[in-house]
Design a protein that fits this description.
- By secondary structure, the chain is an alpha+beta fold.
- It contains six helices and nine strands, in the order ααβββαβαβαββββα.
- The strands form two sheets. The protein has a seven-stranded mixed beta sheet with strand order 2-1-5-4-3-8-9, with helices on both faces. Strands 6-7 form a two-stranded antiparallel ribbon.
- The chain is globular and about 50 Å long.
- Residues 33-200 form the Thioredoxin domain.
- This is SCO family protein.
- Cu cation binds at residues 71, 75, 163.
Length: 200
């Protein structure tokens, strides 16, 4: 009976060890697991109708915000603030790129994105495209986005979008470098962008 107990405990320890190994990336250290570019490859369309891919997030650091043009407050506020920070720390646009990716591609065509973003900033590039491809990119960047009907009795009627409200920061190699939270202290947000530029 005692030998059976020992065998059971050995089996438990082996299973626990395997689960622990898998949870830490199959034996890779967290640093190695996070060393590659963030997100997934994609081919979408800029607000001006030009093809755009993940390569746009290489060569210079990037600030990326996911939202939609029908957004009542979070998106216009964030874009306005982001534009102000960019003008302050990188007025000529030589050190940092910024992007606004729609989470509502059914309504946000490139033309609508162009009209919307152009009213706020000349520094931020809107990204849209085929709805399925856009949502694959959104999910690949681990961004939460969900349609919420305005009227529960009309699920196919007008809707809003619940979505992640943070600005994602990527270094010049496309690696994740942090976030700026919604309603972040402006001085802290500027400091994060300055540190991102220094990191390169």
């Amino acid at each position: 009976m005692r030998s059976v107990r020992i065998l059971v405990w050995v089996a438990v320890l082996v299973v626990a060890g395997i689960l622990g190994w898998l949870s830490f990336g199959g034996g890779r250290s967290p640093e190695v697991a996070a060393s590659g570019p963030y997100g997934v490859p994609f081919t979408l369309v800029s607000q001006r109708g030009q093809p755009i891919s993940e390569q746009a997030f290489r060569g210079k650091p990037s600030a990326i915000f996911f939202g939609y043009t029908h957004c009542p407050d979070v998106c216009p506020t964030t874009l306005f603030e982001l534009n102000g920070w960019l003008e302050k720390i990188d007025p000529d646009g030589s050190k940092l790129n910024a992007y606004f990716v729609t989470v509502d591609p059914d309504r946000d065509t490139p033309a609508i994105m162009d009209q919307y973003v152009s009213n706020v900033s000349k520094r931020i590039t809107g990204i849209s495209g085929d709805p399925a491809k856009v949502m694959d990119m959104v999910k690949g960047f681990r961004v939460y986005a969900k349609k919420v009907p305005v009227d529960d009795k009309q699920p196919n009627g007008d809707y809003t979008m619940d979505h992640t409200a943070s600005v994602f920061l990527l270094d010049s190699a496309g690696r994740f470098a942090g976030t700026i939270a919604y309603e972040e202290d402006p001085d802290v947000a500027v400091k994060k962008l300055e540190n991102l530029i220094k990191k390169g």
